[in-house]
Amino acid sequence: MIDTSISESESRSRLAWRCRRGTKELDLLLLGWLARSFESATSQERAAFAALLELPDPDLADCLLGAARPVDARLAAAVAAIRPAAEPSAAPLI
């Protein structure tokens, strides 16, 4: 969990470091949420995101890429917050 005694910018920096997973797909999804949503996220959403980062890379990839769904409702909500931006548009680009 995130230590609440540290500043918000330090917290964001630590999360950004933890988002770097070594695969481009995970890095883009996780850092994308951090850039788009961290500032407006509630403390519960930030805690859920931090908890999601505790998952091993294969489990995290399965969740974020749609192969699995977290059983924990808090983690499922975090995945749902990250995935919509990654979903392809239903409209054709012709």
Describe it:
This protein is mainly α. The chain has one domain (8-85): Orthogonal Bundle (DNA polymerase, domain 1), CATH 1.10.150.250. The chain has 5 helices and no strands. Helix 1 runs antiparallel to helix 2 and helix 3 (43-52) crosses helix 5. It is globular. It starts with 7 loop residues before the first helix and ends in a 12-residue tail after the last helix.
Which CATH-level-2 architecture?
A: Orthogonal Bundle
Share of helix among residues?
Answer: 55-70%
Within the CATH hierarchy, at the fold level, what is the topology?
Answer: DNA polymerase, domain 1
Shape: globular
Number of strands: 0
**Roughly how many Å is the radius of gyration?**
13 Å
Mean pLDDT: 84
Give the SSE string: HHHHH
Percentage of residues in strands = under 5%
Structural class: mainly alpha
* Residue windows where pLDDT falls under 50 for at least 5 positions: none
Determine the oligomeric state from the structure: single chain
The main β sheet shows up as: none
What's the structural domain tally?
A: 1
Distance N to C terminus: 45 Å
The named CATH superfamily: Flavinator of succinate dehydrogenase
Question: Which helices and strands occur, and which strands form pairs?
Answer:
Layout: H1 8-19, H2 24-37, H3 43-52, H4 57-64, H5 73-82
